[in-house]
Amino acid sequence: MLGTDKIIKAIKLMFLNVILFTPSFTLAQTTDGIITQKDAVYGSEGIDVLFTHATDLSVIAHTSGAGISFRYGKYLTAKTSRSLTADFLYFKHSKEEKTTNPVYLEGLPYVYGKVNSFMTLRVSVEHRKEITPKLRSGAVQVGRLVRCGASLGLIKPIYLVIGYPEIPYERLETERYDPLFHFYDDIFGRAPWVNGVDEISISPGFHMSYGLFFEYGNIRGVTKSFEVGCSGDVFLSPVDIISTDLVDPNRFFLSLYVKIGLGSNWTQSE
Q1: Are the beta carbons of 225 and 30 closer than 8 angstroms?
Q2: What is the DSSP letter of 73?
């Protein structure tokens, strides 16, 4: 019986040692060479620390123009984040078609009937959620996102170089374009874009976007991303890009977009 009691005590002592020392042993192995999921992705050993912040700068191409975007965000969990984004976009009308003066070919191309350039500044709150993680080197992380916020439409009048009196012109004048008074044979070409900047008017509005993002890259903490989606803007007052004598003004802008970005993730201590 004495021998049996000693065996039981030895077994209890062994289990106690396992319980007490296993966590520190596991941590030591993680820092000393255990291959983790991120090690398999990036090809280098290290401690896997959850990122707390993210930022990126992107260029945008959409069905009505182009733009740039900036994002700054914080991770809520390992798979979700909330960000503040700012976009600056240029919009074209679907009926825009450039033309030139048939006699004075040195004149800059212009769009007949286009009376305003239209841009918008968006400020949004964005929510992202990972769908599939990056599991190996060369793989892609896939996620979905939704963003919504305020839009500020910027409407800048178009200026053209007008020839007087008739072809052949004797003098050229830079004037704000008015299709009721300026015709094909009057227009020498487009004036520099800065004309009319001091006459910009605004139209506030709201926008919402939904998309899928694909994040890739082989450097820990550096992100390359590709995003596709759709977005819609609505403004309080109609925007006339093309003269209202030719088409109706529009307050709704729906577009598909592609976004390519470069950014970083990092951990910020509290």
Answers
A1: no
A2: E
Residues of the chain where predicted confidence (pLDDT) is lower than 70: 1-49, 270
DSSP 135-168: -STT--EEEEEEEEEEEEEEEEE-EEEEEESSSS
Positive or negative CA dihedral for 35, 38, 41, 43? negative
Pair of tokens at residue 54: 């993210």
Shared domain for 107 and 173, answered yes or no, is yes
Q: Is the domain of 101 the same as that of 28?
A: no
Full residue range of the structural domain in which residue 23 is found? 1-34
Residue located via tokens 């240029």: 90
Q: What is the pLDDT of residues 184-202, one digit of tens each?
A: 999 999 999 999 999 999 9
Asked if 170 and 200 count as a contact pair (C-beta separation under 8 A), the reply is: no
Note whether 131 and 144 are within 8 A (CB): yes
Count of CB atoms situated within 10 Å of the CB of 245: 11
Taking alpha carbons only, the member of 127, 5, 38, 113 closest to residue 77 is: 127
